Amino acid sequence: MANIGVIGTGYVGLTTAACFAELGHKVIGVDIDLAKIEVLSSGKSTIYEEGMSELIVKNLANNNLAFKGSIEAISNCEFIFLCVPTPQDADGSADLSYVIKASKDLNLVLKKDSVLITKSTVPVNAWKDVVKALNRSDVAVVSNPEFLREGSAIGDFFNPDRIVVGCTSIEKAKQVAELYKQPEIQTIITDNSSAELIKYASNSFLAIKLSYVNEIAALCESVGANAKDVLFGMGQDSRIGNRFLEPGPGWGGSCFPKDIRALRVTAEDNAINMSLLSAALDSNEKTHRRIVDKVEKELENSLIGKTICIWGLAFKANTDDYRESPALSVIERLIGRGAYVVAFDPVITHIDNKKIKIVKSIEESCDSADAILVLTEWEEFKKVNPDSVKDLVKNKVVIDSRNILDKKLWVKCGFNFVGNGWQ
Ligand code: UDX
Q1: Which of 59, 66, 131, 274 could form a disulfide with 267 if both were Cys (CB 3.0 to 4.6 A apart)?
Q2: What number of other Cβ atoms are within 10 A of residue 136's Cβ?
Q3: Annotated catalytic residue: which of 77, 255, 309, 366?
Q4: Would you call 8 exposed, middle or buried from its count of C-beta atoms within 10 A (0-12, 13-18, 19+)?
Q5: pLDDT digits (tens, 9 = 90+) for 164-200
C-alpha cells in the first residue's frame, strides 16, 4: 500500500485516483476547483463514466480515497501523479502552463525522495521542463502516459494493453509500475522522452488508421464493394489488427484531434515533415463532407429547407462528451447547405448552438423529418423499431454513418436505407 497524491481530478485524474484507491492504496485527489471537490467528497462522480460513482463511494467509505482543495494535502505522499489539463494552444501545440505551475507549486510541498509522475498527455521532452520547474534533485520525475478511453475508463485502467513508464532511474520506473499491481500486464520500462512519445505516436496512429478506414469505406461505395467485409478481411491480418476498423462520420473527441495536431507541431519544430498527420486531419474533414454529400444525394441533391433528424451528438457512444465531435462537424455542414437540424442524444440535452434544435425523444426527433442520420453508435438507436417512427417522418430515408442499424428491418418498413461503405 502506498500513499498516492493525484493533482487534477478531470477525466484522467479522477479515474486514476479512484482506481488506485480500489487497488488498496491511500489516495488523495487534489483540485483547484473547490466546487468539484465538494461534489466528489459527497460521493458523486463529476464525469459521465459507468461505475465511477460506485467506486468513489466505496473508497471514500473505506478511507482509501479523499478529495482536497489544496496541494499541501499531498505532502505526505510518496507518489504524486500530475493529471492536469494540457489544452491545445493556438498553433496546435500542447499548452504546458498547468503542468509547469503545478510542478513549481510542488517544490515546497513534496516529501523527501518522493516521485513525481506525469500522466497528463505532454509533448516529448516536457519532462525536462517539469524537472526544471520542480527544481528538486531528490525527487525523481517519471513519465507514465495513460491510454484509457472515455466510456470504458475504469475497464481500461484495470485491463490496459500495456503499462508505460519512463525515467532516468529504472528503479523508480519499476516502483511506479508496481503501483498498478498487475505483474501479468506487459510493462514497458524506458526513458522519459520515449514514454512521452509512445502516447502521441499511438493516438496519432489510431487516427491515421481510422482516416484510412473511412477512405476505404468511400472507395467501397463507388466500386460496389462491401466495406464491412473488406475491413473484416483486412483485420484478420494480425499485422493490421481487427480493432478500430469501424467506419463512421470521422473521428473526434478530446484526444485524437488535439494529440495529432500537437505531434505535428513537435515534428515541425524538429524539421521532420510527418505528412501523414496532416493527411489524416484533411481526410477526416473529407469524411465529414462525404457524409453530408450522402444525405444531400438522397434528397434530390438539395438540403435547402430540408429537416434532418440527427441521432447522436457525442463524439462516440457511452460518453456525454461532444468536444471535437464528428457529429457537430457534420451538423455544421448540413446547416451550411441550408438544412434544419433536429437532434436527439441519450445523454446530451444542451449544446451552445442555437441552430441545433435538441429534443428529448427519438419520436420527437423524427417528426416531419426528410431523413434520419445516425452519427453516434448509441445502443439505444440499434433498438429503435422502424415501425414506430415510419409514420412520424415526412420521408422514409435513413443514413447510418455508423453501420449499427439492421438494414433488413428498416427496408421491410419501407425505408430507403443507406449504409457507410456498403449498400
Ligand atoms: C482515445 C484513445 O483511444 C485512448 O487510448 C487515449 O487514452 C485517449 O484518446 P477516446 O478519445 O476516448 O480515446 O476515443 P476512442 O474510443 O479512441 O475514439 C476516438 C474516435 O474514433 C471517436 O470519434 C470514435 O467514434 C472513433 N472511432 C473509433 C471510429 O470511428 N471507429 C472505430 O472503429 C473506433
Answers
A1: 274
A2: 19
A3: 255
A4: buried
A5: 999 999 999 999 999 999 999 999 999 999 999 999 9
